[in-house]
Amino acid sequence: MPGSSASDATAWSNWAGNQHSTATVLRPTSVTEVVEQVRSAAETGARIRPVGSGHSFTPVAVGDGSRMDLAGLAIDVQVDVDRRLVTVPAGMTLRQLNALLASHGLALPNLGDIDAQTVAGAISTGTHGTGAAYGGLATFVAALTLVTGTGEVLHCSADEHPDVFDAARISLGALGVLVEVTLRCVDAFVLRAHERPAALDAVLADLPDLIGTHDHVEFFWFPYSSQAQLKVNDRVPDDDRPLPRWRGWLDDDFLANTVFAGACRLGRAIPALVPTISAVSARALSERVYTGRSDAVFCTPRRVRFVEMEYALPRDALPEALDALRRIIDRLPFRVLFPVEVRFTAADQIWLSHSYGRASAYVALHQYVGMPYEPYFRAFEQVATELGGRPHWGKLHWRDAASLADAYPRWHDFHRIRTHLDPHRTFTTPHLTALLG
Fold first, then answer.
1. Distinct helix (H) and strand (E) counts, the chain
2. Per-residue pLDDT reduced to its tens digit, 357-402
């Protein structure tokens, strides 16, 4: 197959270390090579799995055929400052994209808190940030170029192949290889961040006002305590209160990573100490207010390894979900070492988006690597499912096609498009077979 050799068979694991595979690696350097490799696979019944930077916790990047690495794909970067559009190779990382945009006085309207993902991986799994008026990253896609399972190169937008566009923006890689993405940007902006400890009940009581008043709202609840850490970000005209370098190092590097890693190792070794560790962690995070370039405020370093499950819920179901979650954690035969994260997004119309047709509250459960997690995650999944929740495609869950079909109004439309674009199932995997049918 073009662009590969037997010596290219390599081992791979994701960031969390809970997913692994060994496969021959395809490294196309042009769209033409992608087309050739896909057509060769289709003709021989082989399978190809495009892989990003490995920041999903599910087996979404694990296939039973060749692995395609798009890091070397030569795509001309195009920046249209006047129209606020940027076209980039799908294998570019968000960190590289943010730097590129900043150099042209542009930015993405919203981001999650990790910037290591590739553009294709981030949009294909529904990566999102927080902000009641903002959708996930896929809602910023203005156009995309897809190599289908028949080797056809499709350029898609709201005006060109609109059905494919609505399906392919969040597709889990099931429709083809994303090779190029055009993103709708905004002028570069500054954020004012206000982070403070607060009582969880007070945060929940104030949520409607918080969400309505601030651009971006999220909070972390510390299990075994009544405390939360509230974070709000708002657009401001001037970067007049930058975070001192020593404070950034102390909070984001030393406390949030080095000290927290030590606390997690201690909690894993002596579980009885976890409630105390959680209470101390909640108190250790002091209030701070600062300004900075948008992507620098949105994105934070994450070096403490964990596994994660996240559910998108109808926004008004959040209080019931958190009440049930508190009871679940109290009944577990093991301890939970990580705080629970809650974020908010606007409704959108992307077929497999977690926020399709409704404003959502996202509840993310984390557990430190090496600690048990499945009973914890499964128990909350049952609660979330009964509340109409949809699992994040890149984070652990146990839903299958039968249980997901009713959760997505355009589910059958997606399958129609999939059958048309990938008739030989060149891009399927055991995980996608269970998930999509």
1. 14, 20
2. 999 999 999 999 999 999 999 999 999 999 999 999 999 999 999 9
* 7 has pLDDT over 50: no
Give long-range contacts, CB 8 A cutoff, 24+ apart: 28-32. 28/2, 28/3, 28/68, 28/70, 28/72, 28/73, 29/3, 29/72, 29/73, 29/74, 30/73, 30/74, 31/73, 31/75, 31/145, 31/147, 31/153, 31/179, 31/180
Using CB atoms within 10 Å of the CB of residue 327, give its burial: 0 to 12 exposed, 13 to 18 middle, 19+ buried.
exposed
Secondary structure letter of residue 117 according to DSSP: S
3-state secondary structure of 174: coil
Q: How many angstroms separate the CA atoms of 104 and 85, rounded?
A: 11
Integer Cα distance of 303 and 397 in angstroms: 23
Apex CA 401: angle with CA 53 and CA 378, to 5°? 75
For residue 102, the SS3 value is: helix
Alpha carbons 381 and 398: distance in angstroms, whole number = 8
Residue carrying the six token digits 């709708």: 184
Span 38-66, pLDDT tens digits: 999 999 999 999 999 999 999 999 999 99
Decide: residue 314, CB within 10 A, 0-12 exposed, 13-18 middle, 19+ buried: middle
Write the secondary structure of 233-278 as one string of H (helix), E (strand) and C (coil). EEEECCCCCECCHHHHHHHHHHHHHHHHHHHHHHHHHCHHHHHHHH
> Which secondary structure element, helix H or strand E, spans residue 299, and what is its range?
none
Count CA atoms within 13 Å of residue 209 on its CB side.
5
Q: How far is CA 120 from the centre of its chain?
A: 11
Q: In what order do the strands lie in the sheet with 66-69?
A: 25-26, 66-69, 48-51
Residue 326 main-chain phi, psi, to 5 deg: -60, -40
- The strand pair at 48-51 and 66-69 is best described as parallel
**Burial bucket for residue 180 (CB in 10 Å: 0-12, 13-18, 19+):** buried
Global pTM?
0.94
- Quote the distance between the C-alpha of residue 97 and its chain's center: 16
Q: Count CB neighbours of 173 within 10 A.
A: 26
Specify the residue for token string 């990790």: 114
Query: At 331, which amino acid appears?
Result: R
